Amino acid sequence: MSKALKIAVIGGGSSYTPELVEGILKRKDELPVSELWLVDIEEGKQKLDIIEALTKRMVKKSGLDIRVFTTLNRREAIHNADFVITQFRVGGLKAREKDELIPLKYDVIGQETTGPGGFAKAMRTIPVILDICSEIEELAPEAWLVNFTNPAGIITEAVKTHSNVKVFGLCNVPLGTKMDIAKLLKVDSKRIRVDFVGLNHMNFITNVYLDGYSILDEIIEKYSAPEYHEQVEAISDIVWDIDFIKSLGMLTSPYHRYYYITKTMLEEEKESVRTNGSRAMQVQRLEKSLFELYKDEDLNVKPKELEGRGGAYYSDAAISLISAIHNDKNEIHTINVLNNGTITNVPSDAIIEANCIVGRNGAEPIHIGAADTKIAGLINYVKSYEKLTIKAAVSGSYYDALMAINANPLVNEYSDAKAILDELLIAHKPYLDYVKK
Ligand code: G6P
């Protein structure tokens, strides 16, 4: 094993951090982490302190020699880091609440990564991530950036297009899909391989292999059975119509519900707001109880209750990726990378979510070819919206922003697009004041 590693986590006060710490400790034999830096902002100080104490207890229990630092000074954490993990949320869960509720007033899906909610989140995040990237270029030019911040595909493309930072975008859904299939078949997930085509939160499963043999047809038959629990906690429990899946001939991502059963999802969201609050409201309640647990001085492991959040397998995805780079493993990971001809009918300069061979020199996507006509339209529709969003965040032009939100497939009426944009700009003024006519 080679040199000791410095890892910096931006958004270190997140309730997800114990998951990450567990992932690092689990891989102690392959990942020689010597310094773990947790960074947050002033508003997150209280949470950061609680996370710091828990992290130190977890490290102490492991007996490992990992030094844990917390700081509000991002530059100090990034300086000479080997890996920077971004998992921050600009404006916190209160901003997410607005992203979810404002579109709903116009009968448009309100969600943190899709539709106008995802657009607003991207507009708040892109200026911040690009600042972080300038700091990485200056203070740790060799570092790898592993980005979890949503909307992960858009954020990764903004970084790739507007900085020189080596970046991987990461999401837990592809790994979760593989684990769900393994559970359904009651086999070890190592025996499963899943082929994807598409984008983050817009990824179709075109094949599933068990020990190298395709079992897609068998999985399709089981797909809408109640025992198949596609990772839906954070999204919806609605089961797909099996005839839809058969006509598609592929499996879907949980997020496809927003596009194919939009009216049903809209009604479900409204009902949920009436009864249980929007997802951001539910998550705030969950977070409150999680942090109460984290405060317990006897707690020195990741508590099971964290599984109530949507980020299952988050640390496995992130830390196994870091290990694949560090140990030059050349193994398959599903990540957000530059298309560069992998999907031939999606722009080459787009970020896609694909299986890649990952090693010391980065990620080499496994060639896919053309996305089927059944799905190519939707993928490209979403990609155009994503590109227009990045353009708007970089130009700060109101007109670019208006065009981007209009280009979102979930927004069908120009007057709604404009009204939602105007409301979002007012609601998020502290973060979106840079958008001007
Ligand atoms: C899924 C997605 C993540 C998202 C999460 C939301 O796992 O892959 O991108 O952040 O759900 O979970 P939450 O508990 O915050 O609603």
From TrEMBL:
Cofactor: NAD(+)
Gene3D superfamilies in alphabetical order: Lactate dehydrogenase/glycoside hydrolase, family 4, C-terminal (3.90.110.10), NAD(P)-binding Rossmann-like Domain (3.40.50.720)
Species assigned in the record: Ruminiclostridium papyrosolvens C7
Protein name: Diacetylchitobiose-6-phosphate hydrolase
One Pfam entry name: Glyco_hydro_4
Protein family according to the UniProt entry: Belongs to the glycosyl hydrolase 4 family.
Binding site for substrate: R96, N150
Subunit comment: Homotetramer.
Binding annotation for Mn(2+): C171, H201
Annotated GO MF terms: hydrolase activity, hydrolyzing O-glycosyl compounds; metal ion binding; oxidoreductase activity, acting on the CH-OH group of donors, NAD or NADP as acceptor
Membrane-spanning parts: none
